[in-house]
Amino acid sequence: MGGLDVRQILERLPHRYPFLMLDRVVELEPGRRVVAFKNVTINEEFFQGHFPSNPVMPGVLILEAMAQAGGILVLPEDGSAAGKTFYLVSIENAKFRRTVVPGDRLNVEVTLLRARANFRKLAGRAEVDGQVVAEAELTLTGVDPA
Length: 146
Fold this sequence. Notes:
With 146 residues, the protein is an alpha+beta fold. The chain has two helices and six strands.
């Protein structure tokens, strides 16, 4: 499957502004790999406090972008998840290499490492202009609605 525009992302993920961290999915190999991006702009709400005179995207939001891309990756190809919501349950080996600032395009690549029951272990990597800004291993789990 090719990519997804923001409307298709909104159909698949429960996240909404200001917490949607993806603008487009450019490559999607269901169950294997996803590549997405977020255009980081000065009008992001988090820049009001992080930091007003030196705006830097919080590292946890870079990880959240990876988790959201992972959520797209683990859904069935038609975007349905049989009513499940996927939650981030662990982050391992997170490393931050450089800052992400307004004007950057945050490129995120997530690959599936393994699947067991309702758990998916993923490798995430974020880059700006070909330079790695962050990487981590993430675990997501699918939960049936209450």
